[in-house]
């Protein structure tokens, strides 16, 4: 039996989690809280196997909660589920030991399996650690390449480009049809839309092209797909 603790201020989300788990006899909800401080106190007392937490919490936010949780003698595995997506928030979540980072609205049908996977890990803080470390290193390589082209991390398109390369590396089939493949995957992960993803990528590439930093690699402005494929090849060579 996996014991789950929920830290979230949204009662509708909590109700959705409860409904998703209602038919799963292997997961039990041991408690819930709408503040990070209350959640930390309960986790110390209840010792759940898995913590499902948002980032936006009063008193103690989700990242601070992760930092405190990892100091416990029996820390739970952590799944972060939030609308507050940014490359920085994802990086900090993984740095403090999160096993998964999900963006709302979440596919509730996937939760029971994720919770059971986390609960079964021998060491919650090291669960999928190696793959996360590899991913963080690859993301850093892509950000360095973008910096060479003058694409600032402050641009929305920068985060989309980094994730595009990482996703394409995990599954190159996503590049075959961007609208139905990569863009849809990014929109789902980042709580966005296909059109917003495409527009953000195009805007970031336009910035680099207008500054002339792409002229030595491309005879004309590259398409989104061409630029992502280029970043993919160059980031692999940098390893």
What can you see in these coordinates?
- The chain has two domains: 2-127, Rossmann fold (3-Layer(aba) Sandwich), CATH 3.40.50.2300; 131-237, Winged helix-like DNA-binding domain superfamily/Winged helix DNA-binding domain (Arc Repressor Mutant, subunit A), CATH 1.10.10.
- Helix 6 crosses helix 7 (156-170), helix 7 (156-170) crosses helix 8 and helix 7 packs across helix 9 (194-210).
- Strands 2-1-3-4-5 form a five-stranded parallel beta sheet, with helices on both faces.
- Residues 126-132 have low confidence and may be disordered.
- The chain is elongated, with a radius of gyration of 19 Å.
- 36% of the residues are buried.
- The protein is 51% helix and 12% strand.
- The protein is α/β, with parallel strands linked by helices.
- The chain starts with a strand and ends with a helix.
- It has ten helices and five strands.
């Amino acid at each position: 039996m996996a014991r789950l603790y929920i830290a979230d201020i949204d009662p509708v989300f909590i109700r959705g989690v409860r409904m998703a788990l209602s038919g799963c006899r292997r997961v039990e909800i041991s408690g819930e809280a709408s503040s990070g401080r209350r959640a930390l106190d309960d986790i110390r007392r209840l010792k759940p196997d898995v913590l499902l937490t948002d980032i936006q919490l009063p008193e103690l936010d989700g990242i601070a909660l992760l930092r405190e949780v990892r100091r416990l003698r029996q820390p739970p595995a952590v799944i972060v589920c939030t609308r507050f997506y940014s490359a920085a928030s994802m990086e900090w979540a993984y740095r403090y030991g999160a096993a998964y980072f999900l963006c709302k609205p979440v596919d509730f049908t996937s939760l029971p399996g994720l919770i059971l996977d986390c609960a079964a890990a021998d060491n919650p803080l090291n669960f999928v650690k190696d793959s996360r470390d590899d991913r963080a290193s690859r993301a850093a390589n892509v950000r360095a390449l973008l910096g060479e082209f003058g694409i600032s991390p402050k641009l929305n398109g920068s985060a989309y480009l980094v994730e595009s390369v990482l996703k394409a590396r995990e599954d190159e089939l996503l590049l075959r049809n961007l609208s139905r493949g990569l863009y849809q995957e990014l929109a789902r992960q980042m709580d966005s839309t296909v059109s917003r993803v495409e527009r953000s990528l195009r805007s970031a590439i336009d910035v680099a092209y207008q500054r002339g930093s792409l002229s030595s690699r491309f005879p004309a402005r590259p398409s989104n797909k061409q630029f992502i494929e280029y970043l993919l090849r160059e980031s692999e060579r940098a390893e």
